[in-house]
Amino acid sequence: MQLFSAFCVFSALALQQVAAVTWYYLRFETPSGAYISSFSGNMVAPTLPGAGTYYLWPGLQPSDNAGVLQQVLDGRSGSWWIGSGWCCSDPDLSWGSGFNVNNGATIAFSNKVDSISDGTWATSLKSGSNSATGSFPLPTHPMNQAIFAIELYNVSWTFGALTFTDVVITANTSSTSWCTGGPYNYENAAVVSVSTPSATVSGGTTTCSISKVVLERPA
């Protein structure tokens, strides 16, 4: 597969390095022909070591790997900022609004599509009194991959664990193995701990629930 970054394109399988990027990510992928209709949870902002190109994000990627819809915790200014966006190919969509985030703060994120055939995604972010929303029409890019990523450019993973809690992914399939089998760990590059996922099926929709996903440290 190809994983599209927050602000550039990177071919993970071909191992094409761009601007000294280092990747760590986990991925839940639905079966062929099945697509994700919502993806939500909480992300805890780690302690930012200083200004640098740190991108930490949950995101959704379509089966054609054309881009990624993501909520990016961005450390370039020396303090965290988070916003939602579609990167990095046609259609060229504006990023949603965002806000600054303190070290240790919990950010609730949500992505929900109005219908898989129409493909307009509503995103929301909330942390304390701060909130932001976005709308992303992506009718030709149904999403089949839910991703938890650490994307680093010329900086190292020195900020400790990246934690996600209360993660819920829904998809239009009665298959559950894509959930209960746990996520793919890219090149086993990260030491991770993931609560045992649980799956429930109702009306042809599977709801996948994971209480905690932690990217602990580099392997």
Automatic annotation (TrEMBL):
Signal peptide: 1-20
Keyword field contains Signal: yes
Keywords: Signal
Name by which UniProt lists this protein: Concanavalin A-like lectin/glucanase
Protein's organism: Neolentinus lepideus HHB14362 ss-1
